[in-house]
């Protein structure tokens, strides 16, 4: 059995994901988003605190802060004081933020789905299982 080249697998995965993101970048721009901002919006419901977002998205906290400020200025996010801890701010999607997020996620899903369609249903299921194992 040939030795597995982990770096090659990582590189293939990275190029695939980058290609999909690049393919939807113009459409995201029309929504007023870049890909990192879309990923922030997509996680706010489950991770409403900036520190949680940074950890979940593997982004530095200053990057999250910059994205949150931009999204807030664009009207996609708002902050509110956490009633359980008045020192913290909780992030919430606005209706326009939710709409932009849903549209952006649909764009990514469609673009990635086109790539996945090259695989059989069984291969797609196996890929999903393998990725869940790796995460």
Q: Figure out the total of helices.
A: 6
| SS strand fraction | 5-15%
CATH fold type: Arc Repressor Mutant, subunit A
* Average predicted local confidence, pLDDT: 94
What is Rg?
17 Å
Major sheet strand order: 1-2
- CATH superfamily grouping: Winged helix-like DNA-binding domain superfamily/Winged helix DNA-binding domain
How would you spell out the order of helices and strands?
HHHHEEHH
CATH class (first level) name: Mainly Alpha
Q: Helical residue percent?
A: 55-70%
Terminal residue distance? 25 Å
Say how many strands there are.
2
Can I get a quick summary?
By secondary structure, this protein is mostly helical. The chain is built from six helices and two strands; from the N terminus they run H-H-H-H-E-E-H-H.
Structure description:
The protein is mainly α and 135 residues long. Helices cover 69% and strands 11% of the residues. It has a two-stranded antiparallel ribbon. The longest helix is centred in the N-terminal third of the chain and has 26 residues, at 6-31. The model has no long low-confidence stretch (mean pLDDT 94).
